[in-house]
Amino acid sequence: QVQLVESGGGLAQPGGSLTLSCAASGFTFSYYDTTWYRQPPGKQRDMVAVISSGGSTTYATSVQGRFTISTDNAKNTVFLQMNSLKPEDTAIYYCKARHRGYGQEYWGRGTQVTVSS
Question: Residue 50: what are its φ and ψ, rounded to 5°?
Answer without folding.
Answer: -130, 140
